[in-house]
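We modelled the chain as a single entity of 67 amino acids. Its sequence is:
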Amino acid sequence: MASVVFSDIEALVVALGGEIREGAGSRVALQLGAAVKYAHRPHPGKEAKKYQIEEIRLWLEAQGVKP
């Protein structure tokens, strides 16, 4: 699996009409309509962890976003 920069995930959510809300520390809320997915921005690196990619993929699919 190729690495995915977490900011690209945030950009995808925004491109789909969603928004990003900052939380405490590295926590961020990804929102599409009424659905919210909480995640932590990776640090010190920028690449999303494999489990984050899978969780966010499943969340997007649940919101009707198809691969």
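As a brief sanity check on the tokenised model: The radius of gyration is 11 Å. DSSP finds two helices and three strands in the chain.
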